[in-house]
Amino acid sequence: MVHYAYGPYFDTKSKQVKNRNTQSKLKFCATKFVDFCKRTDLHGFKYIVMEELNGIERGCWAFAVFLSIICAVFFVITAYKWYATNPIVTVIESTQGAIWDIPFPAVTICDLNLISHRAAVSFVSNLSLPAEINEDIILKALRFAPLIHTSNVVTSEQKKDLLMLQDILDLNNITIDSLFYQLSPASSCNNLLHRCMWKNTLYACDQLFQQIITPLGVCCTFNYYAVDAAEASYKSDINYLPNPRRVASCGYGTALTVMIHIDTDDYFSTSVPSSGAVVLIDNPYNMPNMDSPISLVNPSTEVMIGLSPERTYTTSGVKSFSPDERQCYYYDEVKLGEFRHYSFHNCIALQNADIIKRACNCTPYFFPFKKQEFVRICNLRDVDCLEGISMPKDDLGLRETIDNLSYKCLPECEHFDYPLEVAVGNLATNLPLNGLSFFNVVDLENQSVLNVFFDDLVSTRYRRDVYFNWQNLLAAFGGLLSLMLGFTLISGFDFVIFFGFKVIFDSTTRVLPGGKKSKKKRKRNGGSIILVQETHKKAIKENNSVKDIGMWRTELHKQQKY
User: Fold this and answer.
1) What is the pLDDT of residues 386-412, one digit of tens each?
2) What is the residue extent of each domain of the chain?
3) Per CATH, which fold does 98-465 belong to?
4) Which of 50, 112, 428, 531 has its C-alpha lying 20 to 30 A from 220's C-alpha?
């Protein structure tokens, strides 16, 4: 006899079928998990299903395996984040790099006396002055002229004198940079430097050094290639070289030796309570500034500056990262004003100049601005504005100005550094010399000797390399997974084979209508009830009236009867 069900009967049967399907799936998953635990070589899994152990022991092993999986996932994610945050690493590659692979640094010498007394007296005597102003008043004001870009506090009386001096300069058509060139003790490098020797060969100092203007005043610099204008200046020199000079030897007297003339009787204006000269040692492509490595040469002394050069280079893979990812620029990646090479040092100098330009609508007299760009040079009337920048009352406002700039200052990817050691001794003027040509026919009174050289024949070489690559990730992740779970390539291969082929194949075979399990089920039930229910469900979907359903049941009963 055949039973026909509809309404609540079908809902109950449907729930039962769903429950049986869910139980079947859970049983299938449990069976496969047991099979996996028995066959895998991952640590601890086999003890979860080992029949020799009681339930408590198997539960402890299950908890230990679960905890190991959680720890492994945590450490893998942490390691990945660390690699992603620090994709580039710098390591010491060698301490035996050759020094001839490193350019000799730029050596900039500045007299601590910013204004020569003799030059100031001569300058004032040639000025056109109003009737109510005499030369003594101008001389007094000239003493304060270097305060234009100082970090010291300028008094109101000094500001009044500077404003008066600016009026006199305007009356005589003298610019602020021209003023410092005329008044500096280094108005010519031959005035500041009396004898120069490079690689044991004597040169006229004007052949090795060129004049540049810096925040320290007018200075003389050697091996300087920071700005394009420097190249044009050098081309008129018979000793011009297209690239920075190098040396292949080390020790005293093998590189640069200079005799500096320090005339303490000519001192008129200095920013420090000392006499002598300041020596700046830096990369040839960096603009000399107070943040460069610095040393002091006092009168009647001999100073030896030994350099231990360092070179940092990058591998080819580093360039594939964006500047934000590697946190550095290559020297030719960004063009900064008139600078030939990008460097963090030059970028900060440009940043400071742009801050002054935005705040005071002028550019510092010592900054190498573009010739085609018209900019007003800061003069003595801008002291109030410049003082507010050098000693800002609102750091947040200054930071906002920096953030609004169109460029971002990052370190260089490849660079040279020159750590230095200084030795100082008194210069004896009455001792017999051994015939060195450098000291022939020279009066050592008011002279100081500077020696700059490499300490050793070898240098330190650093390599900046990619750390965020598949090799390092494989090593890190493999080590963590092996430590926590005993994971190996073979166990990984077994995992893929088991879940990628066996489990999928078994689950597909179990649910396919043409599979063996479906046939057995159909044979066991005789096919009648299942076929009737399937036909009945189809009829319910296709017929919307109870009348049609009743006629269909009558017809079906007749067919079943016969």
Assistant:
1) 887 766 555 556 666 666 677 889 999
2) 8-84+472-561, 98-465
3) Acid-sensing ion channels like fold (2.60.470)
4) 428
